[in-house]
Write a structure and sequence with these properties.
Layout: H1 2-6, H2 9-12, E1 20-24, E2 30-33, E3 65-67, H3 75-78, E4 83-87, E5 94-99, E6 103-104, E7 110-111, E8 114-118, E9 122-126
Antiparallel strand pairs: 1-2, 1-9, 3-8, 4-5, 5-8, 6-7
């Protein structure tokens, strides 16, 4: 019992894992967090696309987007649109798009409903 009392508070409380957040690259406003990401299984890559959209490369590609839950800052979603572009509420930069009927990721997987944010328009940060 004395050993438990002698432990310092920093030893008793484990350090929490840093939280992953996504920010708009242009204005740095937080647009998504790790909890809001909708995971999807990797598709079969190029096989999933029409032959005109296929490239010569056969190596699997990384997903260039993340799919998230609908959020309050997504104004077209709140206004009732079925599909539209998603703009940052701070600087109006285009961050992605959404479609309630679904979209295909560049890995070939279908996600529906789809609220897609392009990784090239976001910064990944840890808090």
């Amino acid at each position: 019992m004395e050993a438990a009392n002698n432990m310092s508070e920093s030893e008793a409380v484990p350090n929490p894992k840093p939280k992953l957040i996504y920010r708009c690259k242009k204005c740095r406003r937080i647009v998504a967090s790790e909890e809001s990401i909708v995971p999807h299984e990797r598709g079969k890559g190029e096989e999933c696309f029409k032959w005109k959209k296929r490239s010569v490369e056969k190596e699997p590609t990384q997903c260039s987007s993340i799919f998230v839950e609908p959020m309050k800052w997504m104004q077209p979603v709140q206004e009732g649109y079925v599909e539209e572009k998603l703009q940052c509420i701070g600087c109006k930069a285009r961050l992605g798009s959404f479609n309630w009927a679904g979209m295909q990721c560049n890995c070939g997987a279908w996600v529906n409903p789809a609220f897609q944010l392009h990784k090239s328009r976001l910064d990944e940060c840890y808090m």
